[in-house]
Amino acid sequence: MSDEKKIAFTESDVLNALLHRHAYDQHFATQESVDNVKERLTRFEDQMDKQFGHVHENINEFKALTEKRFDAIDKRFEQVNDSVDKRFDLVDKRFEQVNESINELKLSLEKRLDKIESTNTKLLFLIIGLFFAGFSALYFK
Where are the strands (E) in 1-55, listed by range? Predict the structure, then answer.
């Protein structure tokens, strides 16, 4: 024999092959077992499709419910916002009224102060006049 046709195995390869020969056993399937596996896989696939269908329905229901709740919350926030805006408008009007009243009181007070000043000036001249009249009456007597 020539060296070309010889196959060489190491001792460790032979020992591993003998010790672990179960890994090399083969299973020959019959057509019936193949058909059974196909049928089981088909049933499993159908069940998974149904379950995923239910999951998708539940997700869609949850989405719809969530959108409905968020819409309700948005409407409520809009109502609260409108209510707050109305109240601020009322407060603004009230402040404007109070400001107008303060301005009217300020004008009225300024007019009265002007009257008091003119009255004080007249009274001062009257007192000075009386003083001179009294002094002249006493001095020139």
Answer: none
Reported as a single tens digit per residue, the pLDDT across 65-116 is 999 999 999 999 999 999 999 999 999 999 999 999 999 999 999 999 999 9
Residue 57 tokens read as 């329905």
Residue 115 lies in a domain: no
**Could you tell me if residue 5 is inside a domain?**
no
Q: Which residues of 19-28 are buried (b: 16+ CB within 10 A; e: fewer)?
A: eeeeeeeeee
Q: What is the pTM of this model?
A: 0.44
The answer to whether residue 138 sits within a structural domain is no
Dihedral sign computed on CA atoms, order 111, 117, 119, 121: negative
